[in-house]
Amino acid sequence: MTTAVQQATADVADVPQTRTLSAETRHHRRRGERSRGASAALHGSLAVAAFIAAFPVAWICYIALGPDEHDYLHPGKILGKASLSNFGYVIHHTGFVSWLLNSVIVGVGTMFVGVLIAASAGYAVSRMRFPGHRKLMYTFLLTQMFPAAILMVPLYKIMSDLHLLDSYLGLILIYCTTAVPFSAWLLKGYFDTIPVDIDEAGRIDGLTPLGTFWRLILPLARPGLSVAAFYTFITAWGEVAFASHFMLSAGKYTLAVGLQTYISQYNSQWNYMAATSVLIAIPAGVVFYLVQKHLVAGLTAGGTKG
Amino acid sequence: MTVAVQGKPLKQRRDRSPRPGLVSRIRRSYDRHWYAWAMVAPVVVVLGLLVGYPLVRGILLTFTDANSLNVGRTIGVNHIPDSYNWVGLKNYTEILTGPDNQFWPHFVWTVIWTTVCVALTYGAGLGLAVLLNRRMRGRTCYRILLILPWAVPTFVTVFSWRLLFTDGGAINSVLGALHLPQPAWLSDPTWQKVAAIAVNVWVGVPFMMISMLGGLQAIPGELYEAAEMDGASPWQRFRHVTLPGLRPVSNTVILLGIIWTFNQFNVIFLLFGSSGADSAQILVTYAYQLFFGQMPQDFARSATVGILCLSLLVVFTSFYRRWLNRNEQVRA
Lengths: 306, 332
Fold this sequence. Notes:
Chain A: It holds the Pfam family BPD_transp_1. The complex is a heterodimer. By secondary structure, chain A is mainly α. Chain A is built from 16 helices and no strands. Chain B contains 13 helices and two strands, in the order ααββααααααααααα. The longest helix of chain B is centred in the N-terminal third of the chain and has 41 residues, at 22-62.
């Protein structure tokens, strides 16, 4: 990657903050002269896009308010009789609470284990030239290409040999294999943007490489880490296929699996499904809200540098 | 990820002295690099154990006639040993050239699916990122709403889309009110494909948009000013400043997008369930159907389709990277 353009983009990120800022304000003044028509078009198209993006999510919340099974076919009627009864039923009369607990354990566990090993691998690849570091990055890319179907049967066998079937740890490790490669790549990119001088200063002050990583680099990489945490959490939170084949006893069901048992058990009572879906989406939304500030910086810090 | 792989070395360039013997080379390499290796060890162990080893087992399965009836299993205290046979390349030849061929139609649809989805998500993501990348009122609000499809778990949003697409659902009600035809989104083969692509694009746009936004913010404002001084029209500025500046990000997200879309299991599986919608199944869900959707479950065929998917992606990726490298050499 040595084209002039990429060199240029690489250099840009190194430009002191003040220069970019002043460029932005000049930029702004020019853009500030946007005509009224252009402004309306801009807001109009963004509003349409935001509506399309948010509508299905809002729709499911709305359907969840309708107390009857077939209300989704007559959405107009929901308005008159909207109630929270579905939510009450789901929370009090199903396994929802235990599913939620399992999902939280698995999701948070994946987040911690995943981010920790992804960060250490990403740091090693970013800072140390060891034999095989290029191959490692390519292997990360390669693991993204595996269809889950070919892994399912052999994986099932391995898990049962290791007595990890029906256990939180087993599921956490499996989710790590899907979430860690991308997170490691992401974090490697983020670590690349942190000046190496900081590491060297730490080393001169007598920190071990591990100490440098733990005390200096990780705190600086918080935006990158939070995006990686979001990604691993969402991966674990929303996964269906592995969870439904590897969590065997009803007490270990995660939300995604629980939702499925529900369809047969209640003969597809869409209203309860909708209510459960909304309850599932809330924690994901909270995690998302916490990291959304960092999302842009954390996700592309490495990608733009080339 | 291509970008990352070829990143410039940051420090610690090793001096190249004449090569000593193997043992001392290993020892020296160990002394120098054990820190790095210790840090990547957890990832390597987890990936090796849970991806590498199953993969090898999966490849071995493709040369057998394993199905759910002849694979060793434990029922209660009785252990039944494996009884499947080695059949060589029979699975591959049957899948690729056999009568009643299911592979090629699914393959063609998978290619169309991947191309259309990636083109649309990339286009929409780029467009929205350009719109969002300026000062205006309500920017944060727009951004949060636009990322929503990514933040909410897929099985929730796809479920919502199913409700919207059902015969008497909201989309058809609106179409009916406008006196437009109301297609059977979830049962007509053609409309199934349209619906699947629409949902997948909806799910995929936020990632593209955020990546592009990051890329746009790294393009220096000076470049735009210089272009404007030279009298470049907005379109020319987009064409000659924005697009080249976005190239590194674009290369990466397009490759990732292609890989992820090619293997997009969730959207199709959740939208149409494990049965039905035969023509809308891409290779991955087709492999899954062979696997869980029928009795006896055909492990060997399913693994074979999986391996074919994997090899297609590996070949594609190596061509893509070579093509990128060549383009760069031409440009440089």
